[in-house]
Specification:
The protein is an alpha/beta fold. It has nine helices and 15 strands. The structure holds threonylcarbamoyladenylate and magnesium ion (MG).
Length: about 325
């Protein structure tokens, strides 16, 4: 097989091909604005099982399902008083709502959490939306990486994870956000399960109430278990210099002269740093460095999500 022959350019002909494959129950990768997803028909047990199997994901870690719009979410989930308010402000975009599934929903029970809830997201990436619009089923799509590894932010990253084991990787260029969506549980008192581009403060402002953060004791979001987002080499936080045989990720200009330095952002932009984090970690690993040291990152805005992922990567 020709290398990369499963990476499809973003042209109409290939989008049709992707749609056809998804209708047949196949599983492949699609770009979103956050990270690439490994997508399959959420109504199909076969497709959903295939996703778990490809990712080597533990059965008890539930899957995010992607919908075309609010109506499509409402068709499958029980009424929730917060959903419409948040949706109007933040969707389509990098936010995932945890809701209660309707009893008569056709969605595969395999995507659910133990408590019968479902994570729902409406992505804004035009390619993902084009595909969803042509389908009459939602798409289960966790990040397109092997379980516990770093999420892919380009088609080549996805190829790196799955090679030719998936029939398509629709190429949507480098993702614009680079970190996974914020996950908010809306069943009962709103609770932020995973920080992302949309912050706790923004959510509080729109909901006009305090939202709680997940306590480590009772894990509502199994994917937020500690070891996660690992680049495959040790990560050291709050460093100014690289370790021996390692490299350093810099935030802001540095006087360090070694070749083994990589910039998250020269201008100290947190958004730019978020966009670069995963791809740089992959690059450093590929270049053969034995560890990654990282400057300290301000804990504000998307910096909170960056620090969350870095902390997990360092476990
Ligand atoms: O930006 C994103 O969210 C990307 C793109 C592809 O949409 N997807 C993604 O999926 O990051 P994944 O599976 O890597 O992360 C989903 C997180 C996991 O931590 C999972 O445990 C949690 O959401 N989750 C899924 N269903 C849940 C549920 N019903 N209740 C609580 N947490 C849930
Ligand atoms: Mg993931």
């Amino acid at each position: 097989m020709k290398k990369y022959s499963n990476i499809f350019p973003p042209r109409e002909r290939y989008i049709e091909k992707v749609v056809k494959l998804l209708r047949l129950g196949k599983v492949g990768a699609l770009p979103t604005e956050t990270v690439y997803g490994l997508a399959g028909n959420a109504y199909s047990n076969v497709a959903v099982r295939k996703i778990y199997q490809l990712k080597k994901r533990p059965k008890k870690n539930p899957l995010i399902v992607h919908f075309y719009n609010l109506e499509a979410i409402q068709k499958e989930t029980e009424f929730n008083p917060y959903l419409k308010i948040l949706y109007k402000k933040f969707s389509p975009g990098p936010i995932t709502y945890v809701l209660k599934l309707k009893k008569k929903s056709k969605i595969s029970k395999l995507v659910l959490n133990e408590n019968k809830t479902i994570a729902c997201r409406v992505p804004s990436h035009f390619l993902f939306r084009k595909v969803l619009k042509k389908l009459n089923f939602p798409l289960a799509a966790p990040s397109a990486n092997l379980s516990t590894k770093v999420s892919p932010t380009s088609a080549l990253d996805v190829f790196d994870e799955f090679k030719h084991n998936i029939p398509f990787i629709l190429d949507g260029k480098k993702t614009s956000i680079g970190l996974e969506s914020s996950v908010i549980n809306l069943v009962g008192k709103p609770k932020l399960l995973r920080p992302g581009m949309i912050t706790e403060q923004e959510l509080q402002k729109v909901l006009k109430k305090k939202i709680s953060k997940e306590k480590t004791k009772k894990i509502l979001s199994p994917g937020q278990m500690k070891k996660h987002y690992s680049p495959g080499i040790p990560v050291y936080l709050n460093q100014k210099l690289p370790k021996k045989n390692g490299a350093i990720l810099l935030f802001g200009k540095s006087k360090y002269l070694g070749k083994n330095k990589f910039y998250l952002s020269k201008s100290k932009s947190l958004k730019e740093a978020a966009r670069n984090l995963y791809s740089l970690m992959r690059k450093m690993k590929h270049l053969g460095y034995k560890s990654i040291s990282v400057n300290s990152i301000p804990n504000q805005g998307i910096g909170i999500a960056l620090n969350d992922r870095l902390k997990r990567a360092s476990q």
